[in-house]
Amino acid sequence: MLMRTEFWLYKKMAAVRPDVVLRLNVDLETALQRKPDHKAVSLEKKIKVVPKLSFNGAPIVDIDSTEPLEKVLEQAREAVNAVMKCY
Questions:
Q1: Out of the domains of life, which is the source (predicted)?
Q2: What are the backbone dihedrals phi and psi of residue 15, each rounded to the nearest 5 degrees, phi first?
Q3: pTM for the complete prediction?
């Protein structure tokens, strides 16, 4: 029952088109530094898959998350503010 409920929730979420997606891109070295408890092979697979995600056709803003935190946050804020101006 839990599996069916979880599937239903994911299906429902996937049907919604976000206003914008902030895609935080990272290289393997940075990912390993931030997630030392994860296996490199697993992180490498995730890094390869993320650029292929489409999020139901939503606009995607790619952010280089290897940059310093303040720069990442600034880019994220700018992207969100641009979307919010449309409302």
A1: Bacteria
A2: -80, -15
A3: 0.77
Q: What angle do CA 78, 80, 86 make, to 5 degrees?
A: 105
DSSP string of 40-78?
HHHHHHHHHHGGG--GGG--EEEEETTS-HHHHHHHHHH
Output the CA torsion 49→62→60→24 (10° steps): 60
**Partners of 21 in the β-ladder:** 60
Distance of CA 19 to the CA centre of its chain: 14
**Mean pLDDT rounded to a whole number for the chain:** 93
